[in-house]
Amino acid sequence: MAGPDDVSSALGASYPGDWEADVVLRDGATAHLRPIAPTDADALQAFHVGQSERSTYLRFFAPLQRLSERDLARFTNVDHRDRVALIIVQDLPPDPGVDPAGAGPREQIIGVGRYDRIGPDEAEIAFNIADAHHGRGLGSVLLEHLAAAARERGVRRFTAEVLPQNGRMIAVFREAGFDVSQTVDDGVVTVSFDIDPTDRSLAVMADREHRAEARSVQGLLGARSVLLIGQPDAIAGSAVDLLFRRGFESVTSGGFDVVHVLGAGRPADGDEGGAVRYWARLEDVPGPVDLAVVALPASQVVAVVRQFAPLSIRGIVVLSTGFAETGAAGLALQRALVRTAHAGGMRLVGPASYGFFSATVEPPVNASLAERLPPPGNIGLFCQSAPMAVPILASVEHRALGVSSFFSSGHRADVSGNDLMQFWHEDPATQVVGMVLESIGNPRKFSRIARRLAAVKPVVVVTAGQSGHVVPPGHAVRATRSPRRTLEEMFRQSGVIRAQNTHRMLDIVQLVAHQPLPSGDRVGIVAGSSSLAALVAEAAAAAGLDHEGRVVMVTEDTDDVALNAAIRALYADGSCDVVVAVHVPTVGAASPRLAHAVATAAAGSGVTTVACVLGLHGVTAALTAVGPVGPVAAGDPVAADGSAAVGDPGPDPDSDSDSDSASAAVPEPAAAASRPWTVPAYSTPEAAVAALGAVVQYAAWRAVDRGRLVRPLGTDRPRARALVRQHLPATLGTGPVDLAPAVAVELVACYGIEVWAGRIVATADEAVAAAEELGWPVALKSTSPLLRHRADLGGVRLDIADPDELRVAVEHLFGRARQIGAAGVPLEVQRMAPSGVACVVRSAEDPLFGPVVSFGLAGDAVDLLGDIAYGIPPLTDVDVADLVRSARAAPRLFGYRGLPSADVAALEDVIARVSVMAADLPELRSLELHPVVVGETGAAVLSVTVQLEEATRADGTRRALPA
I need a surface site. Which of 582, 619, 885, 913 has the fewest CB within 10 A? Predict the structure, then answer.
């Protein structure tokens, strides 16, 4: 059977290649999904013959040993419109006796889903899953992709006839999140449901995606056997030489049961007596093997990976470079590598990866180039390029931080930060996440996953540059039309803490890993001099913290009793939510007394504490003390009863992570009701306060109810989709199209947005007639793009009260249009809206971010100053409220300078409806409501413009790995 690339090229333009997708199944393995083709006849027959009699009966309602030639022809020859069939395939091992390096892929079908149209917008569906692959979630994946394909073809409803004993298939329909109706007639169950996405179906899909992707990463970290393939002399890279020179010591000592080594100059026979076994030929390696680490010239990697099928390998780490960073040919090679890995059921880490390790399993697993692992702890770390991994891990070691797991994705051709966040959400060993992102391939999915994770665990992120728009060589990222602020707003909306660089990221990470989240922003200061106290106070004010003179001054001359009493009083009087302790003596080393007093007072107090003590940095024994269990630290695992997990210091993965990351000198807990608490140390007071300010903001975000997803009443999504289909087909491939004003008004009306009535006129008589119809007074507006909404340029006349005044205004606007070369442009007559604050609400479909909603007050000054707030749907009611209030000119809506307050609730309702519309319609290239006049009661939408374009949204209504 031909591979997917051969299928696509052979069938040409009629073949819907964009329906192909790599998917992660329920068990974490991967597979390839694609439309069926005539060349699949033999594979379909093999699939059918391999089914049990029961499975065949449940599918065809009759015994059927083989498919007839007529059936095979009908099943494999489809038109991809009224008759659609999708198959899920996995690679077979190469044919014996055929050189695997030169052989193409061989596929086996493991699942089939199809629909046949039975009405204008209705189709009958059927599924058949290979017996050996039941329980892996193939049916739900096929249903999602069939529904997406059917919606493209104008099908709105599915029906299926199922035998009552086929409970597994009935469950697939019911558990998909659609509203399913069911009837029974003559011993056959008929189910039917609309296939437009619902909130529940999208939530079900996201949850399935979450569990599958988390399980796939868990499979990598849980590997017990590994295969290392490399040629140290073939590629100039110390990485491979390092692995071979120390006999893959970091991997061997890292807990793998067996390490298979395949490389030049190694013994031909396996060393059966040790954990490391050397092989001359790949076909001699006994399976199963969990993980492969590949360090070969790029040109050899794909052919080698294709031979992994007999070994049942679940994951591959590719250290090699020479892929997408080299140009178009390298990008094609990288894509071939991804397709080969996924078709073989494998996840790919890399290429150009530093590898990964897990420090909290016993014994630790190390499939990276790191020679030393950090101590086990509660911090999950992710970066992309291998060179970036080196300074990150060096700084982690310098700070004595404990790490649960570390991943370097290289070019993130497959496994990305999104996958790791899915895993860390479920991983009890990881309570804090730090990520260095040189690029974000799917920001919309990132936002969704990060928001879910940040609600329970701090997520600290560094992006390449401050804009996040810099794309390193080798990273496949779509271009963006959105302003640079969009990324910052996405992080803010998702609860992500953004750091300026890796140093700041680890500053924040070490704080949330060892201290409770602040309950407020009131700062207390412990300082050895007034100048240091003033420095901290100034830094606190710059960070938006509240400092009102809560200062404890201690010096070298302060005796132990007074020092401890003063510091304890600061913690006990309830006046502080956070404390900054600074001790930098002018001459000599810092006395340990202040560090000990602060650590003792802070332990278990619930007051978030940071320190700047000369000679201390990161996690230290000097700033660690035993205290009550008290409030749960931000980075602590939480037991089922809600209490903090408590344990002794050491490598035990079930122990408390604070003690894990402290040195051996950290005191042991005195009793089960106690635990060690560590105050993180910083090199400068400014660094300590900056980390504290970021965490205070995060704690405030997490403490506030984030609301519910908006879904306003009075929307008609099917009607909106029908309008889009009606006015878009002629534009496919030709770029965006502007909707006629009447159609734009009709489209937004589907989402309950009523546009203020108006009439387009070409003469003074028509204008007077329109005004008589609409009612006086009226506004007269030019439709010229240069004069539209521009009263300052003479393009708008307001409060016209009678026909004579209107005729004069018509002549004035026509004359103004002639002056700018816009003669003949019609005018618009509109009934005057109540007075209020003029605002602009927009939505734009961005190739990278997906739908982006923006809000600002109307006017040149606002546009020139960039006073525009952004949000990425789906939005909650709290997000919408934040969007309105985050504009700097927003006070004008809330009774500015004694003026009446505007009806902000009505404005928020308009924004909510625009956000839902933008999320529902990926073809909505742009929408503008300008102006939206917000009065004391209500919000009047005076004008709407809409552009449509072919949908290209990356994060849609079907699960798929990046192409």
Answer: 885
- Total domain count for the chain? 5
* C-alpha distance from residue 370 to each of 191, 249, 250, 399 (Å): 55, 11, 7, 17
Extended strands (E) in 561-684: 578-583, 608-613, 624-628, 674-678
Cα-flanking dihedrals φ and ψ of residue 241, to 5°?
-60, -40
DSSP 64: -
At which of 832, 851, 868 does a domain end? 832
Find out whether 842 and 918 touch, Cβ atoms under 8 Å: no
pLDDT given for residue 465 in this prediction: 54
The answer to whether 28 and 363 have CB atoms below 8 angstroms apart is no
906 within 8 A of 717, measured Cβ to Cβ: no
Nearest C-alpha neighbor of 365 from the set 407, 410, 336: 407
Radius of gyration, alpha carbons of the chain: 32
**Burial track 153-183 (b if 16+ CB lie within 10 A, e otherwise):** bebbbbbbebeeebeebbebbeebbbebeee
User: Residue 589 in 3-state DSSP?
Assistant: coil
Give the residue from 801, 832, 863 where a domain finishes.
Answer: 832
Q: Which domain holds residue 191?
A: 4-196
Q: Using the 8-state DSSP alphabet, how is residue 665 labeled?
A: T
Place of tokens 């604070």: 658
Is the separation of the CB atoms in 435 and 397 below 8 Å? no
Mark whether 684 and 752 lie in a shared domain: no
pLDDT at residue number 877: 96
Residue 900: count of CB within 10 angstroms of its CB: 12
Do residue 867 and residue 887 come from a single domain? yes
The answer to whether the beta carbons of residues 200 and 129 sit under 8 Å apart is no
Tell me: do 729 and 858 sit in the same domain.
yes
* DSSP structure class, residue 305: H
**What is the residue-wise DSSP string for 428-460?**
TT--EEEEEES--S-HHHHHHHHHHHHTTS-EE
If phi > 0 it is left, if psi is from -120 to 50 it is alpha, else beta; for residue 821 that is left
**pLDDT score, position 72:** 97
Q: Is residue 341 part of a domain?
A: yes
Q: What are the strands of the beta sheet with 122-129, ordered from one edge?
A: 21-24, 30-35, 83-92, 106-119, 122-129, 157-162, 188-194, 181-185
pLDDT of residue 536: 96
Q: What is the CATH number of the domain that holds 778?
A: 3.30.1490.20
Q: Provide the CATH number for the domain around residue 746.
A: 3.30.470.20
Query: For residue 269, what are its two tokens?
Result: 């026979």
690 and 793 both lie in a single domain: no
DSSP summary character for residue 901:
B
Strands 432-437 and 459-463: parallel
Task: Tell me, yes or no, whether 105 lies in a domain.
Answer: yes
Q: Which spans in 409-529 are helix H? A: 417-426, 443-454, 485-494, 502-512
**CATH code of the domain in which 562 resides:** 3.40.50.261
The whole-model pTM stands at: 0.87
Residue 933 one-letter amino acid: V
Which stretches of the chain score pLDDT less than 50?
A: 1-2, 234-237, 246-247, 250-252, 264-265, 267-273, 468, 637-672, 731
Residue 138 CB neighbours (<10 A): 25
DSSP element (H, E) containing 855: strand 850-857
**48 alpha-carbon distance from chain centroid:** 39
Residue 169 near residue 58, CB atoms below 8 Å: yes
In sequence order, the β-bridge partners of residue 161 are 190
Alpha-carbon dihedral 654, 657, 663, 665, rounded to 10 degrees: -80
Distance between terminal CA atoms of the chain? Answer: 22
CA–CA distance, 402 with 158 (Å, rounded to integer): 52
User: What pLDDT score was predicted for residue 904?
Assistant: 97
Distance CA 555, CA 562 (A): 11
Residues 134 and 246 in one domain: no
- Under DSSP, the state recorded for 785 is T
